[in-house]
Amino acid sequence: MSSTQNQDTVTSHQARRADVVVIGAGLAGLTAARELVAAGRSVTVLEARARVGGRLLNHRLGDGQVTEIGGQFVGPTQDHILALAKEVGVATYRAAVPGENVYVRNGRARRFSGHLLPDPLALPEMGIALARIGQAAAKVDPAAPWRAPNARELDGMTYETWLRKAGITGAAVDLVNVFLNSAYGGEARDASALFSLWYVSTFGDETHPGTMERGTGTTGGAQDSRFVGGSQLVAQRLAEELDGRVQLNAPVRRVSQDSTGVTVVSDAGDWRAGRVIVAVPPLVASRIVWDPLLPAQQDQLFQRLPFGTLMKCVAVYDRPFWRAEGLSGMGLLRGGSPIREMFDNTPPDGGPGVLMGFLGGREWRKWAHRSAAERRGAVLRCFAQVVGERAFDTVDYVEQDWTAEQWTQGGPTAVAAPGVLTDFGQWMGRPHHRVHWAGAEFSPYWNGYMDGAVRSGQHTATELLHQI
Amino acid sequence: MNRFFVAETAVIDAPVERVWDVISRTDRYAEWVAGAIEVTDHHGLATVGRTYAERNRTLGPLKTDSIWTVQEIEPLKRRVDTGTGFAPLQDLTNTFEFRPVQSADGREATEMLYQVEYTIGLGPLGLLLDAIQQPAMRAGMRTSMANLNTLLRSEASRTAH
After folding, report:
1. What's the pTM value of the predicted model, to 2 decimals?
2. Based on CB atoms within 10 Å of each CB, which residue in A102, A357, B50, B126 is the most buried?
3. Do A142 and A445 meet the contact criterion of CB atoms below 8 Å apart?
């Protein structure tokens, strides 16, 4: 410890000071900072990137228009992000576009309206699957999934094994995987059954138990609405409010604690604070040099919470031509399709036209290393199955591969394999002396979502204020 | 032993060089060959004497594992492979031939011949089996060439990098 103390003594003379240093200017970190500033604390937010927003990222389309290439949807019971956006002056609009959706199976496209898929063979099984998932998820406490009945048994198998044991086989497993492809950047075989049922249990709030229908739904569900100006605008407005307290290009390399405070060593200099909030993805947090070390169980937990593999693929057109043909641009594609779920991501005033598809999980693993031209071709062929061959006539094409983001390391959220929640889950948000944790992955509601990030930021700020 | 020849032709709306680039990639057959669910083993750019393997759909829900050997390569013109794993079809030979043509609006295009040659034993029963399977095989060959056309179009999109 003596060498560390010497180093801290040296750095503390040069370090800038704040009551609290927040590491990470995503929604959780910015929200926590806002709460702390409102409570009269001096705060510095250190952000590794040259921008704020974390997993929220706008792509400029020109003429002041944007579309999102990171998180974008919000919906009912996500009251924390909705209230925060309202406070910073960012409006929402309904994401759904009038028109028919398209269901593609084995290369055959069928239009459909509403929520009922045009697949009579898959529907009964999907109904049973939803009922069984709902019943099982209802028994899982969003705040303490490791206390669920049969928690150890559920955490001893993958979600796919559990689905098959519950009598749910081919079509419904595939449809669950269509959802998990974008939700996990993975599949049912990647995640623990307990984690997956807990994840469903978080699709709600204190008075509305989580349901699969709310998590997967468009209108009335988690994909109900979007933000005018793009979701990153919420983070940008928060950073503006923080008025110079956000330091960009400041990756944190080391966090040292002693009896009087915390020294945070970043590429933009050192800070000395009474408390620190770490609001970066768990795996990224585990890669900071910790002195003293994180408790081994917490470090193991963070290492076992990697993000999935996900890329957002965006094709831009001069206008949303599919709307005139009665199509919503929303498509579900089965049978080995690279894109399994796609949406109309056109800005709210109707142009230019934007189609967005998720390339996630197994499909990401298959296509990420292919040439950009081959991958783009495969994506556009998927879009063409849903909206026709004019999908090839793009004016722009953009990919955002979240695995290539050094400070996120995947997307969209952390997914726990069997054994993680029951053996290590209780270490999730436990403060490490003067260090507190925040982030979408630390929330008991809408875990991994924008609402979870805001909830967690608020919760951690409150927790910290009670201790200082 | 009954020997059969099945041939289909189509015009691919791309120069022969681009068509050749795609059909020469043994890892890409599942992207355009109808019935090829997955390429399970490959050697990249087709090389005479080397093999690649596929998981294929046959009739209805039935699937099979096939192994193909590259027999002849005449660049930009002809490619011949032999395959196993499609019983009761035996001695399977797959031939692609290409010829540069011009489309109606003067663009470079490619005429493609897709030919499959095979034997079926079993005497008269073999003839009956072929009468059942051959229409599906022909449809699959036409679909494959249409898929190839679409694949090339998708990769020639205006924003191609």
Report:
1. 0.93
2. A357
3. yes
pLDDT in tens, A409-457: 999 999 999 999 999 999 999 999 999 999 999 999 999 999 999 999 9
| Single-letter residue type at A376 | R
Chain length of chain A: 468
In terms of CA atoms, which chain B residue is nearest residue A397?
B159
Instruction: Please indicate if any CB of chain B lies within 8 Å of the CB of A1.
Output: no
What domain range is B110 assigned to?
Answer: 2-155
Kindly identify which residue of chain B lies nearest to residue A335, measuring between CA atoms: B37
Q: Hey, what's the torsion of the CAs at B45, B48, B53, B56, to 10 degrees?
A: 90
Return the domain boundaries, chain A: 2-54+231-295+430-467, 58-76+85-98+224-229+308-404, 121-216
Mapped onto helix, strand or coil, the DSSP state of residue B33 is: coil
Whether residue B37 is contained in a domain is answered as yes
Residue B103 pLDDT grade (very low, low, confident, very high; cuts 50, 70, 90): confident
In this complex, do B154 and A393 lie within 8 Å of one another by their Cβ atoms? Answer: no
How far does Cα A446 stand from its chain's mean position? 9
Which chain A residues have a beta carbon less than 8 Å from that of B161?
372-373, 376
The answer for residues whose C-beta is within 8 angstroms of residue B3's C-beta and 6 or more apart is B91, B117, B118, B119
The yes-or-no verdict on residue A10 having pLDDT over 60 is no
Helix (H, G, I), strand (E, B) or coil at A120: coil
Q: Would B114 be classed as within a structural domain?
A: yes
Give pLDDT, residue B159: 55
What tokens were used for B68?
């193909």
As its CATH architecture, domain A2-54+231-295+430-467 has 3-Layer(bba) Sandwich (3.50)
Query: What is the DSSP annotation of A367-379?
Result: HTTS-HHHHHHHH
B94 assigned to some structural domain: yes
CATH architecture under which domain A58-76+85-98+224-229+308-404 falls: Alpha-Beta Complex (3.90)
Fold of A121-216: Guanine Nucleotide Dissociation Inhibitor; domain 1 (1.10.405)
Nearest CB to B154; choose among A336, A372, A380: A380
Cα B129 to chain centroid distance, Å, stands at 21
Q: How many domains does chain B have?
A: 1
Which CATH number does the domain housing residue B120 bear?
3.30.530.20
Please compute the mean of the pLDDT values over residues A210-216 and round it to a whole number.
94
